[in-house]
Amino acid sequence: MIGQNATRDHALTVHRGADRFATRTSWLDSRHCFSFGAHYEPTNTGHGRLLVSNDDIVLPGAGFDTHPHADAEIVTWVLSGSLVHQDSQGNHGVIYPGLAQRMSAGAGILHSERNDAYRLDPDRAADPVHFVQMWVRPDEPGTPPSYQQRELEVADLRRGWLPVASGRHSDAVISIGSRGSTLWVTRLGADVRRELPVGDTVHLYVAAGEVDGEEVGRLRTGDSVRITGRTALSITGRAGSEPAEVLVWEMAR
């Protein structure tokens, strides 16, 4: 079910998690905010420069085998478990909560993402990996592919909005090739209130927990809000819920 609200200055649409496209296999549970793969809706192909936002759960010993990408800034944010990345440029790494990762596909790259970290490290449990993967349109097509991963201070997420990936904030954890785009992440406990980052186009995704959103009411895990037009809105963590983890893309026109 989709709710809409509009004023003279901005418009916003709430998309409920239960209404998202879903791809399910024997090893994958993937839920898509926008058209993806076999799921196509001509009026739902992205929001601003954000083209893909998938919430994926992959079972141990499985994953996405080698496949191609081009002209996308691909940011992966792990919520639990760990994910192994390998690509045709020789980059490889294990992605886990508290580490930000970006792959710029550029002129073309092959990569794989698998839940195999427990085979590389005996201290890692063979648990499902849960992550959100987001694709942003780059400013320039056909650039050389590149890769970046970097740890962050998880405690900073509880203090406010942390710029995790950005094309303009020099203090962001990782950089992306979209000058007007920033991924902000925060964690909110009960009754903690935060103003949303203000941009020409904003996409809010509740990755965990529940919040109360100004003008939109209660938002649960998997819900998203699309905002067009610059406006100052706030969200507040709900009592009785797990701490909320919220991902916000703030994008220039």
Automatic annotation (TrEMBL):
Residues 22-136 form the Pirin N-terminal domain. Signal peptide: none annotated. InterPro entries: Pirin (IPR012093), Pirin_N_dom (IPR003829), RmlC-like_jellyroll (IPR014710), RmlC_Cupin_sf (IPR011051). SUPFAM superfamilies: RmlC-like cupins. Belongs to the pirin family. This is Redox-sensitive bicupin YhaK (Pirin superfamily). It comes from Microlunatus panaciterrae.
